Input
Amino acid sequence: MPKNTKVTQREHSNEPVTESVADLLSLEHPMDYKSSQMSMGLSPGSTAPGKSLLPEQDLEDGRPAWNNKMEYILAQVGFSVGLGNVWRFPYLCQKNGGGAYLVPYFILLLLIGIPLFFLELAVGQRIRRGSIGVWNYVYPQLGGIGVSSLMVCGFVGLYYNVIIGWSIFYFFQSFQYPLPWAECPVKINGTQAIVEPECEKSSATTYFWYRQTLNITSTIDDTGGLNWKMTLCLLVAWILVCLAVIKGIQSSGKVMYFSSLFPYVVLFCFLVRGLMLKGSVDGIAHMFTPKLEKMLEPQVWREAATQVFFALGLGFGGVIAFSSYNKRDNNCHFDAALVSIINFVTSILATLVVFAVLGFKANIMNEKCVVDNTEKILGYLNTGVLSKELIPPHINFSHLTSQDYSEMIGVIKTVKEDIFGQLGLDPCILEDELNKAVQGTGLAFIAFTEAMTHFPASPFWSVMFFFMLINLGLGSMIGTMTGITTPVLDTFKIRKEILCVVCCIIAFLLGLLFVQRSGNYFVTMFDDYSAGLPLTVVVILENISVAWIYGTKRFMQDLEDMLGFRPYSFYYYMWRYVSPAILVVLIIATVIEMSVSPAGYNAWVEEEGSERFHSYPPWALAMAYSLIVVAMLPLPIVFIVRHFNLVSDGSNKLSVSYRKGMMKDISNLEEQDEQRFILGKNPSEAPSPMPAPRAYLGPGGTQEMTNTNYGTSTKTGYQNIGSPESEL
Output
């Protein structure tokens, strides 16, 4: 039993310990009304023999706990910092105005990111349950929130682990020199050596990704059977995840020391190495050159809000699950700010690395373009198509720079304007190469791998890069699996090891959908449809259930009792007004975009060596929309069955009467009381961390129960908090 609980204080101290109403409410445990001590005619302040006011689970200290604060922070960082920080944020930054994109992103991080992240941390830590138990407790009719979170976690986990499997395949392929994607394969046709046509029409890295790795089909209708290489890699990925999760947070917490910190080591190594490459400064300068006019476009703000939303892992249940293993007096306000800032800084660091490397790649591609087109010009000069008088006298073909080529091509275009289009000469502008925005698998498995082929000691850097992706993916998958297993373990008392093994086996079997030859198209479908809209709806309902149903003032009081200080009034207004409004706008914008944008995927056309957009066939479109429906279906179902009392809400009648009858002094505050709870006046008038005793009535409202003695309590935990001003 924790040494700082009030039960142990009562046992080991002669001083009386008094629980406040808020303490009782936060620690109440589901029980039958008839078995509660209040229905047994007990006197005020007494308990039944062998009974306690604390939940039975806490008395037995049966809930696991983090070994230390560092493991917990690393787990939250590992969950929130994932593949999206490396291959999604840089793309959005480039697409939406470079450095100007950071302004709306940071504003929305303050308005919805940190407040909602703090909210999830607080409810998980206060109620000490997974996502299902938390929202059943807050408002049983919205208990479907937790089930929808679990469904989304399941959908995302299925395809997210496939990406880890791809990274594992590339990781093992990196232990050879030259790298297998460095050059196009050559086919021997009799006495002739012919470059593979599909590779010649695309590039070596593109060919290796689509043909050697995925062996992809040309349409989603053609499944093509299982890709056995990817099937084995997926199996390895699920074994790794299962081993990390099966022992609970004591095991996964230790894993996080490596999986959360190693990616930062790799990113810093890549940044230092990247800055030493020719053209890296061009890439970084292009990245952060602000296009201020972009800030006025609504699309930029919508994409920034979506990225903030998913970067922190809001709505998945992993944040709530991790925080539920904390001590109740842990300073989750500090944790919310710290993890959010680490996530933001990581995105900036990854952006620097990506565009330093892509700047180097752009210079390589631009130089190759200059060489290829110079050979064309020399051919035209030798055949008399072009006159040598068109070439400026200072041009030296043996040492031709990009500036010399631009000048030469400008002269040719001006003089031979009538036939210039027939010459097939490219402008070879560096800016055009830098503007080729790539994201997701296109960045990790094509653009970045191509750049690494030009690195000295390229196998070493390739091994490091894909090992980093594996660790980033595992950190997020551990959080995702915890978001699934924790609420299930809280609801059904089964062995954790059995649950984890069963979940991983089922997930692997379902994941075979993604390791068919057409599996990449299903990964795209799940990524586009399974999480976006359902998660946004889940989070706005979380926000509404706490701020408007449970009550923001009551929640602020709970936080004050739990943390020992009153959170800033900023959070009150964010939770109650600003965040719900922004989320409503985001939902509307998402629905509009889904209605306007054609539903489809980019299919690989082998004959052309390029991608082509295809619309989903009717069965695939039905499957895509069914992902949204299935993920959101628990919300109305649970609401209906609970509203009409078709199924027990899982909470006891005593708890409901407590909330309704005993918290009137908070829910019916006058204006001056509201100012005391929300705004405060000055430091000298700040409330004491120890809640004042309050009189309250029993369920029937006939017996008044009062606490008249103040006890002393020594606050222990990861940090001793004096005032909110000390946190940030």
About this structure: The chain has two domains: 71-356+440-596, 365-435. The first strand starts at residue 186 and ends at 189.
